[in-house]
Amino acid sequence: MLSSRNMTLSTPLMLCIAQDKIEMFIYILYSFKQHFIKHGHESMDINGNSLLHLAALNQNHNNSINFSKIIMKFSPDRFMKMINLKNNDGNTPLYIAAGLKNIKLMMFLM
C-alpha cells in the first residue's frame, strides 16, 4: 500500500500532504514504519517532489511545518536526506518555502 502510486506517481503519504490530512499521514507512517525508514526519502512524484517538497508546497503554512516536523521526528536520517533533494525544477524544500514566503518553515528547515 505505501508503495502504491497514482498516475502522477504520488504515494498515499504524498496524497495525505496534498489533501492536508495530518491524522491519516501519521496513521500510514506508523502502520508502515519499517518501509518508510528504509525507503521514505526515495519516493518522488512525477515532478520529482519528495514528501518534504510537498509539505513546503502546502498552502496551509501551519500544516506545512507540522508535516515537516512529523517527518523529522519519525525519521531524522530520512529527513536530512530529503532536505537537500532538488525536484525536477531544481528546487529544494527550502527554496519552495522561500518562494511561498513561508517564513516559519524556512526557519525550521535552516
List keywords for this structure.
single chain; 110 residues; mainly alpha; Serine Threonine Protein Phosphatase 5, Tetratricopeptide repeat; 0% strand
Write structural notes for this entry.
The chain is mostly helical. The chain has a single domain (12-109), classed as Alpha Horseshoe (Serine Threonine Protein Phosphatase 5, Tetratricopeptide repeat). It is built from eight helices and no strands. It is globular and about 35 Å long.
Q: Give the number of domains.
A: 1
The CATH class label is: Mainly Alpha
Largest beta-sheet characterization? none
Radius of gyration: 12 Å
Helix content: 55-70%
| Shape type | globular
Structural class: mainly alpha
Please name the CATH topology.
Answer: Serine Threonine Protein Phosphatase 5, Tetratricopeptide repeat
Determine the number of helices (DSSP H or I, runs of at least 4 residues).
Answer: 8
Write the SSE topology:
Layout: H1 12-18, H2 22-31, H3 33-39, H4 51-57, H5 61-74, H6 76-83, H7 93-99, H8 103-109
Helix pairs in contact: 1-2, 1-4, 2-5, 4-5, 4-7, 5-6, 7-8
Task: Sum this structure up briefly.
By secondary structure, the protein is mainly α.
